[in-house]
Amino acid sequence: MYLYNSATHKKEAFQTHTPGRVEMYTCGPTVYHFAHIGNLRSYIMEDVLEKYLRQAGYDVNRVMNITDVGHLASDADTGEDKMLKGAKREHKGVMEIAQFYTDAFFDDCGKLNIKRPDVVQPATGCIDEYIKIISKLVDTGYAYLAGGNVYFDTSKLERYYIFNDHDEDDLEVGVREGVEEDANKRSKNDFVLWFTKSKFEDQALKWDSPWGVGYPGWHIECSGISMKYNGEYLDLHCGGVDNAFPHHTNEIAQSESYLGHPWCPQWFHVHHLNTPEGKMSKSKGEFLTVSLLEKNGYDPLAYRYFCLQSHYRKALVFTWENLDNAAAAYGKLLNRIAALKPGGEVEQAVFDEYKAKFLQQMGNDLNTSMGITAVFDALKAKANDATKLALIGSYDEVLSLSLLEKAAKLREKAAQTVQSGAEGYVITGEGDPEIDALVLKRYEAKKAKNFPEADRIRDELKARGIELTDVKGGASWKRIEP
Ligand code: AMP
Ligand code: ZN
């Protein structure tokens, strides 16, 4: 596989420290609110990458943190803790907020077919790890105490900026309005490893440490959690592009100073999902969540399809119109797959040829739009339906668009559509002739203007847990949960 590496600014052959094994780390969500669909773009693309690597034969250990402490309003370590802000907003405890939004995050991931990482670790569960790392950094002179906090001393590094040649002005990145500068820092680049003094006295979560009661900085969490579960050599670190500076830059600074050797050679950054007005935000404009997509009648997987159509290294603009186009294309694709007949022998030679092409195209810096094109190519292949279905199923282990499952449902539904009566009154249901007969009887009663009988049958259906909807040219029914 060839993957663009933001640390070297080049597309490079993918390599791992231990042959055949990938130690992969992903920055997880800050659980003070729902994830917006921009955050989820990052997780979708990282999910495809993980699944691709598995299909290419790697044994992947994927680790993700849950940021439930230490991520302040500004990425430059100032302002209020985001978790505390969330707790205040909802008049709840910080841990209650964390649990609620962690669950909500994984619900959203489930709806988008994003696999749960092998290890998911809330940051509050690894305080000892951070203290161990910070203690060594203090002992070896990479960290200093000032004003009650422990800071990483970036002047000790030969090279601090890894991803870009920043200058001082770039430190404005991540600094939000109304956030003051921290006068304790010896240099603007220095960052907090451990807070004991914050101007927000009501910081809810605090732990004892050699430097006083306090809490960890956001950056140390990812280094600590990764070293604990991925070991000393990380192969691949992922996150949204806004994390590259200062978060990932600081992770590298502290991890390599602690370990005394290079830490992670490959960095995968997903570019942003924007709105036509600019950066997507949880506070400004429409708060775009998976629930909102569902409320507006979209299948969350149409959003996944929308993301896969574009390359992860390009900013993507979300509009409802763009989503409509993706949803229509996804629907058409499903209908075409549904038209294939399951059963029969797979033509192995054709399968192997197409599969190799898919792996090669996707392996070119995770070209997901070519991955989708590969599905269309499989549909057009000179092969039998069994081979086409096998190919699509295999691609979908990586794309995760539920192509076979959804196509099978469409096929089933088509089979269950009953043509009844001379005028072609169409009943669409779940394939129960007894219920179909009752629905038809009600239709005939209505036609004969015997409304009491029609109502009686509707009530009977309801009592049997059947929800009936009159539609143009017929009726449709489904069983509802009691
Ligand atoms: P957070 O919950 O703020 O810690 O962010 C979770 C993940 O979403 C991080 O990897 C961010 O880099 C990423 N992210 C934030 N905003 C966007 C966006 N608009 N588009 C894509 N990824 C984003
Ligand atoms: Zn991180």
Structural features, described:
43% of the residues lie in helices and 16% in strands. The chain has 482 residues and is α/β, with parallel strands linked by helices. The protein has a five-stranded parallel sheet, with helices on both faces. A four-stranded antiparallel sheet has the order 6-7-8-9. Strands 15-16-18-17 form a four-stranded mixed sheet. Helix 6 links the parallel strand 10 and strand 11. Helix 10 runs antiparallel to helix 11. The structure holds adenosine monophosphate and zinc ion. The site of zinc ion has 3 residues, from loops. Zinc ion binds next to loops.
Largest sheet: spatial strand order? 5-4-3-10-11
General shape: globular
- Number of strand elements: 18
In this structure, how is the largest beta sheet organized? 5 strands, parallel
Structural class: alpha/beta
Distance between the termini: 50 Å
Q: Summarize the amount of helix as a percent range.
A: 40-55%
Which range does the strand content fall in? Answer: 15-25%
Please tell me how large the radius of gyration is. 27 Å
The stretches of 5 or more residues where confidence is low (pLDDT under 50) are 170-179
Enumerate how many helices there are, as a single number.
15
The pLDDT mean sits at 91
- Each distinct ligand: adenosine monophosphate, zinc ion
What's the helix and strand layout?
Elements: E1 2-5, E2 10-13, E3 21-26, H1 37-55, E4 59-66, H2 82-90, H3 94-111, E5 119-122, H4 127-139, E6 143-146, E7 149-152, E8 191-195, E9 215-216, H5 218-230, E10 236-240, H6 244-259, E11 266-270, E12 273-275, E13 278-279, H7 290-295, H8 300-308, E14 316-317, H9 320-338, H10 348-362, H11 368-380, H12 385-399, H13 403-416, E15 417-420, E16 425-428, H14 433-447, H15 451-463, E17 466-471, E18 474-479
Parallel strand pairs: 3-4, 3-10, 4-5, 10-11, 12-14, 16-18
Antiparallel strand pairs: 1-2, 6-7, 7-8, 8-9, 12-13, 15-16, 17-18
Helix pairs in contact: 2-3, 4-5, 4-6, 5-6, 8-9, 9-13, 10-11, 10-12, 11-12, 14-15
Bound molecules: adenosine monophosphate and zinc ion (ZN).
The site of zinc ion has 3 residues, from loops.
